[in-house]
Amino acid sequence: MASCKSSIALNSTDRVGSSHPPRVSGEIHVIIGPMFAGKTTSLLRRIRSERNNGRNVAMIKSSKDTRYAIDSVVTHDGVKFPCWALPDLTSFRHNVGEDAYEKLDVIGIDEAQFFEDLYDFCCNAADNDGKTVILSGLDGDYLRRSFGSLLDIIPLADTVTKLTARCEVCGKKAFFTFRKTAATQTELIGGADLYMPVCRPHYVNGQTVVETSRIVLESTNIVHHQTTQLSCLEAAVLQSQ
Ligand SMILES: [Zn+2]
């Protein structure tokens, strides 16, 4: 796990006699959940609320995610907010500029699971720089494994909110993200074409169907990731319920 090297506290003698006023205490708030749970909507609501209260805000998203727009965070239902699209968080301070960074009160991070330097960035921003960091992202991938380093932030956080979606099959609360294809890479960026939120029973049933279909498709040498395969799998999943 990453360590926050520059957050080592100064000892008491370093603080005594310092001409710098004590910094405002930072905060870290984490919003997690499956896809289609309203995580980005919740993040934007909180960032807007901070801005309306007169605080200086900035939003960051991963440059890997170009689904809806390059320079905006956009919810699944089309609400937009301008943002910095970056390959990593370390470059944020340089990109935004030292003066602008100093003036920032609140930093929002969308799809935080894509940033490998998340831990160090959040640690420094909140502990050393007095920023409020509000981040949203997937806690688990399509196999329900920890996604990226997002869960490493939990011990640093002031609050953690896990949102739920609606199961696309039965309408009950959905906690998991189900991938409708047989593709196996962890990062496969897509929307409702590739993923759906599901409850526990439908996750378990769906995984069984997808795994069976994958074996059959592989044995007949059908190429992966094709649209026809998607709809076949989706139909198979839904019929199995
Ligand atoms: Zn269900």
From TrEMBL:
Xref: Pfam families: TK
Top-level division of the source organism's lineage: Eukaryota
Pathway of action: Pyrimidine metabolism; Purine metabolism
Catalytic activity field: thymidine + ATP = dTMP + ADP + H(+)
Recorded GO MF terms: ATP binding; identical protein binding; metal ion binding; thymidine kinase activity
The enzyme's E.C. designation: 2.7.1.21
Disordered as annotated region, ranges: 1-22
A GO BP entry: response to stress
InterPro entries: P-loop_NTPase, Thymidine_kinase, Thymidine_kinase_CS
Keywords associated with the record: ATP-binding, DNA synthesis, Kinase, Metal-binding, Nucleotide-binding, Transferase, Zinc
Assigned protein family: Belongs to the thymidine kinase family.
PANTHER family the record matches: THYMIDINE KINASE, THYMIDINE KINASE A
Identification of the protein by name: Thymidine kinase
